[in-house]
Each structure stands twice: as C-alpha cells, then as structure tokens.
Amino acid sequence: MSRLELSFMNSGHSRLQLEVLRLYRNFLRTVDLLQFKSKLENGTSNVNNGSNFDQLKEFIRSEFRSQASAYKKTDIFDRTNYVASFAYGSVVFPQKDRTSSNSLIDIIIIVRNPVEWHLKNISENPNHYNFLFRNYAKKYQSSSLEVFLSRIPGPKVYYNPFIEWSDPLDNTKLSFKYGVVSLDNLLTDLCDWSHLYLAGRLQKPVLWIPSGSDLSSPQVYDEKLCVSQNKNLLASISYSILQNYPTNFPLNEYDLFYTISSISYTGDWRMIIGEDRQKVRRLVSGESRLSEFRTLYNNTLDSLQLYGFSLKPSSKSNLCKNELHWFKPCNNESENIFQLLKNIPDHICLLSVQETWNHNPNDARTFLSNLSHTDRNKRLQNTLSNIVRKSSLYQTGLGLVSAGPKRSLRYALAKLNKMFASLGLIKWS
Q1: Tell me: the pLDDT tens digits for 256-265?
Q2: Dihedral sign, CA of 226, 228, 231, 236?
Q3: Phi, psi of 87 (to 5 degrees)
Q4: How far apart are CA 234 and CA 383, in angstroms?
Q5: Of 86, 93, 320, 385, which alpha carbon lies 20 to 30 A from 295's?
Q6: Angle at Cα 305 formed by Cα 367 and Cα 372, nearest 5°?
Q7: Strands 105-111 and 173-182, how do they pair?
Q8: Which residues pair with 324 in a beta bridge?
C-alpha cells in the first residue's frame, strides 16, 4: 500500500520525489547482507526464492515500501490547504471471491478550499481534467469555479478518474481515481448524515494517507475531522444495533458489520444497474475484513454512549469469532431504544417522523422509541434510503461533468463488467 503514496508522481519528479529515489538507491548499496539473512532466518520478511541478490533486492524494496509514509506527501498532496486523504476500495482492501488486478485505486483528498486546490492542480496536472472543465477554469478563474463547486447539489465530491502512472522503480503501471471534497462538506456529512456519501464510505475501513497505521481515526490530521468521524461511527453502530435488536441478539459480528456496510448502499440507484450485486457481502466476508472492522469500531464499542455493549467470543464457533452482547440494559425497553437513538443524527430522527412534527429531535426520538421494532426500523430504513438515492444521483451527475463523456463511458463500462461478473455471467478481470 505504500506504493499508493508514490502513485501521484508525474514524469517530471519533484525535489522530494527525487530525494526519495536517491535514498532508495543508497539503501540498495549500503544495506547489510548479514542483517538481511538474520531477518530471513527469523521469518520477519516475506521474499521470493532466488539468488541472494534477488532476495536482497526484494527485501529492501519491501522495507522501503513499508517505510514510504515517512516521506510524507508527493506533489498532489503538497498544498497549503490540504487536510488529509484516504484510500479505499478493493485494491486497498482485497475482497473475497474477486480479483482487483484491473481495478482503480480509489482516493479521497480533503481540502479546506477546493477552488484554490483545483486551480493549482489544473495548472500542474491539466491532463487530470476533461477539456471543458480545464478551459472553463482557465478562462473564468476562481469566481466562476467557486460558483460551480458551491452550487452543485449533493455530496460535492469532484472526481478525476483513470489517472495513469508508471512506477519508475519497476515500471509497474497503476491506475487510480481521486476525488476532492471540502472539509466543511465532509464534516457536515459525518455529523448530520446529510448525504451519507463520504460518511457512508468512512463507516467502513479505509487507509489514511500517509501514515497508513490507523484504520479507525484521522486523528493525526484535524481534530474536528476526528471528532466528527467518531460521531459517524457511533451513529452507524447504533443504527445497526437498532435494526437487529432484539431478535438477533446476541448479535454476531458479521451481521453487525453487514448492517453497517449496507447503510450507504440501500437506495443507491447504482446497485440496480452498474455495480457488484454482492458488494456488501464481500465487504465483510473473510477474517481479514472482519478484523479490519473490529479495529475500526473497537474504540466506539468502548465509549460511554454504548455503555453495556461489548464484543465477546462467540458461543457458536462455526459462525463468527465474536458476538455483540448487551450486558446492562435498562428495565424499560423504550428507554434502551431512546438512548441508542440519541446517537443517531437529529436530521435522521426528524425526517423519520416528519409527518408528525419536525422541530424537536428528542420528541422525535421519544416517538420512535415507542413504536414497534418493525415500524421504527422501516421508518429509519426509508429515511436513509431516500438520502442515499438522492446523493447517488447527484454525485453521478457531477461525475459525468467532471470526467467528461469519454472517461464517463469507460467508467460506466467498467461498472457494468463488475455487475455481470458478480452475477456469474463473465469472469472477474
């Protein structure tokens, strides 16, 4: 995954990139072969069979890749209003029963001022943008670009897909797409579930760049971002508990995380046509994926707002390693439900009872907590589904504008291939 952090290099390298390559070259020349052999004997390095030189080269490359994050940002990240970025998708987190050799690496870049960021990026990487947008920005500059980026409805994530890059170290060719979003828009989505687009993405494991060491929080980047993400995780796990309580308790971790993963796909029109039909199942299938979800939600499960809930070893070893238990529920069931609903954004609770009132979130929570489980779950599901449907349509429209007709058609065909492969009509490619 460290290769990802180098994947934004252009053919003309920056001073930082050249310095990284120089260090890599010197590392190749000076590494101690005895130390290498010692690591091999201790089983701490995963290398291929072959000559000592080939093994040494592979070992050094592995070491360099694992430490690449120390060199921080490459050109596309090196902007004054850059906040953070993360990678996601099947290339970053391989999914069960499917290959990802031809898939794009997915990146989200969070910035404070998208207009300034795009203007600078257009000047440095014009080929990342379609012809119309590139010339529009050049002609009208910041004022009109700001109007365009601020007035478009929906999540407002501007994507540049099918960016090609060749690794100068081994000539490996990589393809990625990156989306740019303002910090303010992201914080609103995380706290309010206004679009459930990036909030939904961050309810699942991602890899924060450049550290790559913490799946659970962007705490090294921005305090507000960290706090908002914690609210998002708490809301998503509370929603999952509500959807499964009490019939599925104790709740095995597969069902817990499956419900969370489905939040941002329920209502998404792309799940009807142009998407992997088994996507949600693949996101949580396999021990490695479950382990990533455990890491992501470990601190949330220990929070005071979820007092009494805990993952414990499962009594049914043939299913999952762990189950979610509720150890200290209140005697009043509606009070239990109300406490969980307090973790759900006000916006969602109000929309779920809007035909009754829409001014006091706690009144809405009281109303919901006194409903039957079936009725309450249906109301919440419909609310989220409507939000996701609208945001997916808006984002698709923006994608057509940002990518241009040629790349949009290419992207649509790639999505259709995923759908057909998930149905077993063609092979994964």
Answers
A1: 999 999 998 8
A2: negative
A3: -110, 150
A4: 18
A5: 385
A6: 25
A7: parallel
A8: 251, 311
